[in-house]
Automatic annotation (TrEMBL):
EC number: 1.1.1.271
Glycoprotein is among the record's keywords: no
Annotated residues for binding of substrate: K188, W246, R253, D325
Annotated catalytic residues: Y137
Cited function: Catalyzes the two-step NADP-dependent conversion of GDP-4-dehydro-6-deoxy-D-mannose to GDP-fucose, involving an epimerase and a reductase reaction.
Binding site for NADP(+): 11-17, 106-109, 141, 164-167, 180
Protein source organism: Maribacter confluentis
Protein name, as recorded: GDP-L-fucose synthase
Swiss-Prot/TrEMBL site (Important for catalytic activity) positions: S108, C110
Taxonomic superkingdom: Bacteria
Keywords: Isomerase, Multifunctional enzyme, NADP, Oxidoreductase
Length: 364
């Protein structure tokens, strides 16, 4: 990528997209283009065709997608598969028609089998059944890998696919029903600490900036307490606050800081082409994607206690077995990525402090 190349970052305001924009600017790329979801709905084929014909970007980072946590994926199954298939089909096909030099497709490590050998090597793709809760989303992501591979093989394009582990960082989604676990626990434990301190000013600020459905900050304390209860944040008669954790707390998860993710994406876009992803004597070319992660995981139970300690919450947790655990372990093999010379920098404890300070800067 040349410093004045026209680079389109799809999803530029999201968790990954916003980190990518920062990283590209820091790296001296001066010709970035973007459109908000409202300006350009990437599920709209005609609109995407018009955008690409007009802008003709040289490079594309496809970081736009319909994204959510385990309950959102399991609830809005049709939306997750439809929107993500439409977005990637439109962007990849229009990139081909408009001669984009290189495109990066962002998938997810949920593409690997539910009971995949650990750590999960890229070659384990399609070797067994997927985790049910996010199967529609995972199938869309697998289709994205195959779309890029197939365009490359048939039309000679240079589209590379990366499979990130769970990510967190600034501009994450903190909605308590639709988000991923780490932002959800940051917010719930933050609210739990405010509740144990009767700090209604903090609760009001949180609700004002990130409204919890059904409550406004001028509702009575009784109403707000009822809403907090609904989201699993409650105080008993002796004043002890409990925060609900979904599932058993036993699942293991890996977490990569979003700015490390952006760094890996720019590194790969600058250093890895499709032809580098398979050996020249391969008869059947597949699994050309590359994992991005830390190679380290933690149980949800220990994650919650780490966040509790960093935030300074003194209450307790209730593990709600009525909520799904999902895959028990999905540790990425980062062997390939590390061999290319890239390794993450931000470890989880530092990242949790970073994201909590960022959250406070937006909500206090
Ligand atoms: N977060 C994570 O833990 C992980 C994410 N990924 C992948 O990384 C990529 C980025 O995810 P992340 O940054 O977390 O997601 P976010 O939801 O934070 O950002 C996605 C962006 O895409 C935009 N978008 C969604 N639908 C459309 C649409 N139809 N048209 C135009 N824009 C749209 C959103 O805009 P708006 O909000 O306005 O709708 C948002 O800006 C995705 O491909 C995701 O699958 C992979 C593994 C883990
Ligand atoms: C990145 C990856 O993310 C998703 O997969 P996931 O990692 O299973 O998603 P998750 O982060 O929502 O949950 C991780 C674990 O955490 C537990 N958990 C506890 N308490 C809360 C909680 O309050 N909220 C959430 N969301 N989870 C909780 C939860 O029960 C589960 O055991 C895919 O949908 C897909 O988007 C994908 O690719």
């Amino acid at each position: 990528m040349e410093k004045n190349s026209k680079i389109y970052v799809a999803g530029h305001r999201g968790l990954v997209g916003s980190a990518l924009v920062l990283k590209l600017k820091e790296s001296g790329y001066t010709n970035l283009i973007f459109r908000t979801h409202a300006e350009l709905d990437l599920t709209n084929t005609e609109a995407v065709a018009g955008f690409f014909a007009k802008e003709k970007p040289d490079y594309v980072f496809l970081a736009a997608a319909k994204v959510g946590g385990i309950v959102a994926n399991n609830t809005y199954r049709a939306d997750f598969i439809y929107a993500n298939l439409m977005i990637q089909n439109n962007v990849v096909h229009q990139s081909y028609l408009n001669k984009v030099k290189k495109l990066m497709f962002l998938g997810s490590t949920c593409i690997y089998p539910k009971s995949c050998p650990q750590p999960m090597d890229e070659s384990y793709l399609l070797t067994d059944v997927l985790e049910y809760t996010n199967e529609p989303y995972a199938i869309a992501k697998i289709a994205g890998i195959k779309l890029c591979e197939s365009y490359n093989l048939q039309y000679g394009t240079n589209y590379i696919s990366v499979m990130p582990t769970n990510l967190y960082g600034p501009n994450d989604n903190f909605d308590l029903e639709k988000s991923h676990v780490l932002p959800a626990l940051i917010r719930k434990i933050h609210l739990g600490k405010a509740l144990e301190q009767n700090d209604w000013a903090t609760i009001d600020k949180d609700l004002a900036n990130l409204p919890i459905e059904g409550v406004s900050s001028n509702d009575s304390i009784v109403d707000k307490t009822a809403i907090l209860n609904k989201y699993g944040i409650s105080k008993n008669d002796s004043g002890e606050v409990t925060v609900e954790i979904w599932g058993s707390g036993k699942p293991m998860r890996e977490f990569l800081w979003s700015e490390d993710m952006a760094d890996a994406c720019v590194f790969l876009m600058e250093n890895r082409d499709f032809v580098d992803t398979y050996s020249s004597d391969s008869k059947e070319i597949r699994n050309t994607h590359i994992n991005i992660g830390t190679g380290k995981d933690i149980s949800i139970h220990d994650l919650a206690n780490t966040i509790k300690e960093k935030i300074g919450f003194n209450g307790s947790f209730y593990f709600n077995a009525n909520k799904p655990d999902g895959t028990l372990k999905k540790l990425t093999s980062v062997k390939k990525l590390n061999a290319l010379g890239w390794k993450h920098k931000i470890e989880l404890e530092e990242g949790i402090l970073n994201i909590y300070n960022w959250y406070l800067s937006k909500n206090s």
